[in-house]
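Methods: example folding runs. The two proteins below were folded one after another, and each record is reproduced exactly as written to the output file, sequence line first and structure-token line second.
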Amino acid sequence: MKNLVALLFMISAFAVSVVSSKCYSCFSPNTTTCNETEVECLGDQCMTASQFINRDGDVFKSILKSCANETLCGTKGSVAVENSMFRFLANCCIGNLCNTDGYELLADDPTPNGVKCPSALCIGKIEECTSDKMMNCTGSMNKCFEFRGKAMDPSMAWKNYSSKGCINDDACKFNFDSAIGISEGQRQEFTC
């Protein structure tokens, strides 16, 4: 009888440790607000992710609310390439429907950090984009990167991209898989 009681106690303790919660869920690839629905999540964390893209003066702001992807929680990504900037922030919280926050992005840090990288952006080309231009990296962008591949941008058009520029550790770690409103179709190269 003692063994049965102990077994039942262990099973109930395990059942209690499998936590679920509700989170707001929505996705808006080119606006800072979205129509929220409630979803059931495995785990107790919810997430709000904000993204900013400035490509030659065309600005795209996007927001995503969902169950938390714990590997993204607290990340702050920054990428700069010739006449373009990409930034994201993922905030997570614990509890039912806790992701009530709106679009939020930290201010860009324009302070040069001493790192210089080649800067090139070729849209419509998947071969290596070359340029003699160098850019001064700023803020947390402490590495150089190169990306070549096909992607769908926030304007919903599939294009080939070849680019080089500055990147920070979080953006290098998650590369463009963490982008909101950007779908990576075929990657030729991504290096940091």
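Second run, written to the same file directly after the first:
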Amino acid sequence: MANSYNSIYLNNLSAFCARLSCGSLIELCKAVALGQVLNGVAIIRPPGHHAEPDEAGGFCLYNNVAIAARYLQKAHGLQKIFILDWDVHHGNGTQTAFYDDPNVVYCSIHRFDHGAFYPGDPVAAAHTAIGEGAGRGRTINIPWNSSGMGDSEYIYAFDKVIMPILYEFAPDFVLVSAGFDAAKGDHIGQMLVTPAAYGHMTHMLKSLAGGKIILALEGGYNLDSIAVSGLACAKALLNDPIEPLGSIVPNALCVQTIHEVIEVQSRYWKSLPQVYTDPIEEPVVGRHVVGMNKMMEAYRKSYLKERYDMIPMAKLESETGPAFLDNVHCT
């Protein structure tokens, strides 16, 4: 049976362990929702974010975080849920579960490698996957096309995309699919995120939703990296001091990726720089889009007038048309 799925391993206790893992997260969510504890970390396995609504996959039998989000909505009336997935792999199952849901924002920051990195979907894991129907803009993918991304790149993504959207969305609850396979030392993820960065990311997240935040363990293949990274997150939740970070200087590939994400997502989030410039596909009412050619035309006109006292040539009937004549200036 296991061989019929994608990367699934089973024994006679797998079903029980999967229910125990998912149930433990639900119990922790219940405690936080009722105010019995402020926040928490669910140290659970098997993980969940690769499990589709109707199929297991990627070591995941039940999608723990997705089920917990639905539980919080139905049992406690906490409608607006923000799910951040910082596991190095894209959480395809969680994205599928909420792809058309306007009340759940799913944000994944993952290694992509142009679709070659597991789960290997060049469409669903790309930055252009934004949700559908009422859920458009509620799926946010930040896909790295290279290994070696570290503290600067992850903190830059937080500053430029994740935190602005979080403050605008103002969730009732924050769930983190906290895989630690992007941690420094993990041989599968091959990323360089330090425990200090995980601590700072957790600290930023807990400023939302009145501090109601839960981290649920997902992937990770180096036990030492998982231990020290998870400890840093727990310290941040307990308001213990966090190790300082070095200077934040993201690499060029990171900056390019973040710019591409903002280009797509700025259409749906006012907190992002408004750089969406596709006036053809479903134009946004009330937003005036100006083409770069028009901007350059206005600049040239102003510059030539001030510097050389030149003005545009009077329009004439011509086969070349006005597009050419509008760029002819004379004294």
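Comment on the second run: The two ends are 82 Å apart (CA to CA).
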